[in-house]
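Researcher: Let's do a round of design. I'm pasting the structure tokens now; please hold your answer until I've finished.
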């Protein structure tokens, strides 16, 4: 059974058809990359899944719930976690406090006003920090962390809601190649250990071909291909769309 079903979603801005009739499904254990040239419609598509934009047409269902046009907080409550292109953490708080804050929010949802009276979720926070290899840094202020560590903390915060799907917007933007690989290997391990699915947008083809198990390709608002990294590399339409994007062709092996 699929976790997320996207059925024919479209979005236009003042006559510009940013996304046109895009459909795909993500099942448990999938690490799906959404790629395409600049202006292909990736961000618009992504933002219709996380609730930042309401589709003009089509539907999005998650775990059997229709979440089309729902607010981001509502989608989060259904079990969709998110990480951002620029990590969203509180610099003046410690690493542990950042996770505790999300746990408070999650538990307020479950227990209502009783939540603030409960323990500070320190043990739960430490368990999540351990899962992402950040426990030794639990007492440090976020603002002194290296960028790769902030991204790992962001992952722990996203996991606090026990999501079944993680939406990651350009997770490795601004990172060095070694850090990129570490973050995506960690993500892949979490997918296996926790039975998650991941959908991520990404400009780095190295990351996509090394870490995604499924790739969907958009061009001019439409979904033009879906397959394994190997299938996408060989796809003539994908090769054509990327023609002229030398870096992509060279690194990915597309067009060779
Ligand atoms: N808020 C907006 N208002 C008007 N046009 C928009 C808006 N958002 C996106 N567009 C247009 O929709 C099309 C798709 O844009 P989108 O940002 O989704 O593409 P993208 O694949 O994410 O591109 P990039 O890789 O450059 O971020 C583009 O033509 C863009 O100019």
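Researcher: That's everything. Go ahead.
Model: Designed sequence:
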């Amino acid at each position: 059974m699929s976790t997320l079903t996207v059925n024919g979603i479209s979005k236009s801005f003042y006559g510009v058809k940013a996304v046109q009739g895009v459909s795909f499904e993500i099942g448990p254990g999938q690490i799906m990359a959404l790629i395409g040239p600049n202006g292909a419609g990736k961000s618009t598509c992504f933002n219709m899944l996380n609730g930042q934009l309401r589709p003009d047409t089509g539907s999005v269902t998650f775990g059997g719930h229709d979440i089309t046009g729902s607010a981001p907080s509502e989608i989060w409550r259904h079990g969709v976690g998110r990480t951002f292109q620029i990590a969203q953490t509180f610099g003046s708080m410690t690493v542990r406090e950042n996770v505790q804050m999300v746990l408070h929010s999650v538990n307020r949802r479950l227990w209502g006003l009783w939540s603030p009276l409960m323990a500070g979720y320190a043990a739960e926070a430490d368990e999540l920090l351990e899962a992402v290899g950040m426990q030794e840094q639990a007492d440090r202020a976020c603002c002194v962390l290296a960028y790769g560590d902030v991204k790992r903390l962001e992952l722990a915060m996203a996991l606090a809601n026990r999501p079944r799907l993680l939406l990651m917007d350009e997770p490795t933007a601004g990172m060095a190649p070694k850090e990129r690989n570490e973050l995506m290997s960690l993500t892949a391990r979490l997918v296996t250990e926790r039975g998650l699915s991941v959908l991520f947008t990404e400009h780095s083809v190295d990351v996509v071909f090394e870490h995604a198990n499924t790739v969907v390709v958009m061009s001019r608002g439409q979904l033009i291909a879906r397959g394994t990294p190997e299938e996408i590399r060989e796809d003539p339409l994908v090769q054509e769309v990327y023609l002229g994007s030398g870096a992509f062709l060279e690194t990915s092996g597309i067009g060779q």
